[in-house]
What does this fold into?
Amino acid sequence: MESKEGGNIILQKEVKLKNPLVIGGFMNQTPLGVMVTSYIVESLKMHQVGIMKSPYIPPVTVFVGRKMRNPFRIYSNEDGTLLIVQSEVPVRQDGLAPLSEVLLGWLKTQGISEFVVVDGIPTRELGERDTYLVAGANRISELEKKKIEIAESAIISGIGGAILNESLMSNVNALALLTMHAMEIPDPDSVLSIIKALNSIYNLKINTAVLEESVKRLHEQINKISEEYKASKGEDADNSMYK
It folds into this structure.
């Protein structure tokens, strides 16, 4: 693809896309987007097919699974109906708009059906998570039937927010799924909540058994710590940090 101001897409494997759904997970205020997209890639055995090369992406190398990787990657499933766009590093602020324009411009040539931005809202609390939808009026009316909660208000920053903004100008269907994400401790509840919403909306059939087991173990540990704390301080002890 011809290089543009925002960068260019470099395909590493031949891929035949069929009006793909695209899910984007990016490092922002929380790592939730990266966690969700990584889980999807692993669960559906997706393959890396390309990267984004841009002067606005820090020139770093990610070393995961005994492999050195570009930080901004594109994955596809076997039948070309699902793409994952993932960045494990923040994009420079002045590059958000031009990079988003290049990315969505390329996706339009591939017949994208919809772009889903996954993002987390920072919190210090653990607990069951609800997923909230940010979308246009028409899409909201459709997804309310699937019992997806609608956000009252939201400001989505970083590359995810820039993509949503570019979608408004380039006539690309796009929405965001948001949930609370604990910053200081593991939070599988937030990943599970987003995956369940994606399964409900798009029928992706992503297996959640591993996540559900992680959530169960985490809550068991929290309950045990809470009970031990109450026992040491008395029944009236304030254990609000575990509520």
Summary: Residues 208-243 form one domain. The longest strand covers residues 114-123.
